Predict the structure.
Amino acid sequence: MAKGKKLPMIDFGLCMACTVCVSACPFGCLELAVTGSDRYKKAYPGLPLPDSCTGCGICATECPVDAIIMVPAGNEN
């Protein structure tokens, strides 16, 4: 992973599971993951392959509720 690279960190308390970030990612890095942790929101976005993310931040920019922030790689959990 490139030094200084940033990755998206999703605040699941704010996330509406609207999938805007998944659609906005030009590289297809974000995917929905079924969690079952909230009976109203059955799936949340996730980054299954962090190395595929370029750190462009489009997902964070497009999130309508600001549930995504870009953090230094290794701090996104």
Remarks:
- The mean pLDDT is 87.
- Residues 27 and 46 are 14 Å apart (CA to CA).
- The chain has one domain: 6-72.
- Residues 20-24 form the longest helix (5 residues).
